[in-house]
Amino acid sequence: MLLGDLYLLSMDRIVVQRSGPLAGEVQVPGAKNSVLKLMVASLYSAGTHELTNVPAISDVKTMGKLLESLGLTVEHGIGESGVLRLTNSGTITTVAPHELVTSIRASINLLGPLLACRGRVRLDMPGGDDFGSRPIDMHMAGLTAMGVRFDINDNALSAEVDHLIGAHITLDFPSVGATENLLTAAVHADGTTTISNAAREPEVADLCDLLVEMGAKITGIGSACLTIEGVPRGALHPVTHAVIPDRIQAATYLAATAIAGGDVTVRGARPQDMQVLLSRMNDMGLEITAVPGGVRIVSQGRMRAVDIQTLPYPGLATDYKPLLVTMLAVAEGMGVVTENLYPGRFRYVEELSKLGADIRTDGHHAIVRGVEGLRGAGVVAPDIRAGAALVVAGLAAQGRTVISGIEHIDRGYDDLVGRLVGLGALIERVDVPVTQGK
Ligand code: EPU
Predict the structure, then answer these.
(1) Are residues 115 and 150 in the same domain?
(2) Residues 9 and 433 sit within 8 Å (Cβ to Cβ)
(3) Short-list 82, 54, 73, 61, CA closest to 5
(4) pTM of this structure
(5) Same domain, 234 and 299
(6) Pocket flag, ligand 1, residue 176 (CB < 6 Å)
(7) Statement: residue 255 has pLDDT above 50
(8) Counting atoms of ligand 1 from 1, which one is nearest the CA of 32?
């Protein structure tokens, strides 16, 4: 599918039937939560920047348009699929258009680089999945400590700074976005910046790696304490960089096999980035092995329920949770799920219940009692990860599961349907006329 078609397909549905056992190999594309921030790093330097292993997802297209609106030229998949070229002519603007900023969360990642390169930025508050309130107080407190002045009016944010000054910042919570904005601002600050209690997610490390390749001075990469020595504006240069594989997409194919049964190798999955998930899956009775270049899963018989809680990396990522809740929905026994990052991230439970799942939620907790099987129904994807989890649930449901709202899935999944078909799943994407119900 061409990336340009994605928005036209928003009335499509995904239709899934009970499937399995799955078999074969699936290749994991590059990580959404890495590539979007790597794209923004092209603001630092004139010239042509090249990213490889870029996923064909609609968020990449949105970020590309956002960067084009600031003056960059963005070419995706010209000649080679998975290659994205971003050309910075040296002239960029600092005002981001409303409709693009409000459609993806990663638009907030413009703050650090634009303040570093231009000393000012104006953008509306970012969009993204609706998990309840998603404040940016930590981004602002850290940047204020570096000398930035903020003005927020009617949901529009303006920020200005004459000279960014290195600062010692301790985050209240290891926020991914705040860590990224502070380190990207610090790249051109005067002196040294330290970020303590920094996020350690592999995607944050990927951004640090790219910036170092471009000429930034960052140490402590992958740890909870990052040190950034500012370098003068103009000191960074374009590079070619491969986006790390998407651990959440990798987990989706593991969960699909766990649910449908089978023997699948997820190529490109990096077990070192997914340790807690893989160990919980082992606890559930799944046979998980690291193999050269990927992870193999063998799923036979019924899974056992376990309790899980989401935590910042290296803990269990909140983005895995809808997949794990779906696995628990058909496992033997009862599992208690605790969400520690987003209070509003249980909305998809209602949709899973339509398929016959037995789940009770109470604040940050969900109690999932495994049932023997699910039954197909019409469901709506409320966000990217929950949408994928509903697709996976459909693999265990008798009859047809019809998922609408799949534009959410397209934001973060590169050909989920085609990849599952390749493993033997009974799944298709169908075009439903607007006037027809789901
Ligand atoms: N938070 C604050 N104040 C802040 C920043 C964050 O209170 O200034 C809170 C948030 O409200 C949330 C928690 O801290 O409750 C974690 O937020 P974080 O900043 O770590 O998340 P993010 O940068 O907004 C990224 C991913 C999410 C992923 C989270 C956690 C991107 C574009 N998004 O969001 O990915 O869930 O980290 O790992 O990188 C997804 O891909 O589906 C997705 C939602």
Answers:
(1) yes
(2) no
(3) 61
(4) 0.95
(5) no
(6) yes
(7) yes
(8) 41
